[in-house]
Amino acid sequence: MRSRNPSALAVPSSARIMATHISVLYRVSLDALDLKEGKVIVDGTFGAGGHSKGIAKEIGKKGTLIAFDQDSDVFKKPIVNEIRTFTNFIPVIANFRTMAQALADKKIDHVDGVLLDLGLSSTQLEISGRGFSFQRDEPLAMTFSDHPEEQLVTAETIVNNWSRETITEILKGFGEEQFAWRIAGAIVEARENAPIKTTNQLVAIIKEAVPGWYLHGRTHFATKTFQALRMAVNDETGSAEEGMRSAFALLAPGGRLAVISFHSIEDRLVKQTLKELAESGHGTLLNKKPIIASDEELELNPRSRSAKLRVIEKI
Ligand SMILES: C[S@@+](CC[C@H](N)C(=O)[O-])C[C@H]1O[C@@H](n2cnc3c(N)ncnc32)[C@H](O)[C@@H]1O
Fold first, then answer.
1. Nearest 5 degrees, angle CA 43-CA 48-CA 53?
2. Which of 2, 13, 22, 204 has the most CB within a 10 Å radius?
3. Does pTM top 0.90 for this prediction?
């Protein structure tokens, strides 16, 4: 058993009061970035802005914070104005995998720290209306971008057009779904009658495809299918890997890359990529085992249960 970090709590009070998304591993991830006044920091995943606000306060007026998010909605919130009172703030509506180009465009060639808090925010899950949750009836988009109509691929595209084999691969590879083949078969059969357009339709198809006992497990029977489709739609593993490599390349000596993952597939990728970067001789892993939430944080925010933080420092 790993011991839980006693200092991982310090959930920002603003997050508790104003937003449904509570930043996970808040204090430890800020500490991991070794923040000091005047530093240049990238938050690759702005979300509800909780981590960004904490970073902004610590780097202050002489510092610069560049924040990425594919969801333009996140930069329309009042927290953005608040952040601007603390530091120089540059919002970028883009995938963080494009950070090298985006920073070059702004004549920034080195940064002191990068935070990637992977996945989706509670706000996206709960109120985006883009079909991330199997508990709400919504259109099957699942895009991080708030303009699904501009995306080449949505969850609707996948379930209505891709082959049983490819859907099976997605459900296995990104969801570790043991009934991938059966669920993919049921999807392909159902779409012959009518296009699959909503989360409720998809949940009903999965329910019919899996054995009875699977409906009563600890994890909801649709969890893995939904996770897998979301990861495929957003090319989350591709973005994360490219983002981590790009971020590491941009770090000044002594700079830190901190990455928070939420499930085993993500964490394996983070662990492997940071290990390779360290083995290249240009970085040091700062913690052998991932940092996880304290009991106190877990009590306040059960979502932090699966969060893992890994950190690398550039030599
Ligand atoms: C877990 S939330 C981040 C929460 C944030 N750290 C906070 O304290 O509120 C992840 C956010 O990153 C965004 N995101 C995920 N992958 C992305 C990517 N590859 N590029 C840009 N934004 C991404 C999502 O749209 C979401 O808003």
1. 55
2. 22
3. yes
Tell the residue nearest (CA) to atom 12 of ligand 1. 45
pLDDT at 2 over 70: no
Give every CB contact of residue 285 below 8 A, 6+ residues apart in sequence: 274, 275, 278, 310, 311, 312
Residue located nearest, by CA, to atom 3 of ligand 1: 47
210-239 pLDDT, tens digit per residue, is 999 999 999 999 999 999 999 999 999 999
Atom of ligand 1 nearest to the CA of 97: 19
Atom of ligand 1 nearest to the CA of 43: 6
Q: Structural domains in the chain?
A: 13-123+236-314 (3.40.50.150), 146-233 (1.10.150.170)
Q: What residues does ligand 1 touch, defined as CB less than 6 Å away? A: 21, 23, 45, 47-51, 68-71, 74, 95-97, 117, 119-121, 124, 144, 239
Q: Is residue 190 within 8 Å of 167, Cβ to Cβ?
A: no
pLDDT tens-digit map of 142-185? 999 999 998 889 999 999 999 999 999 999 999 999 999 999 99
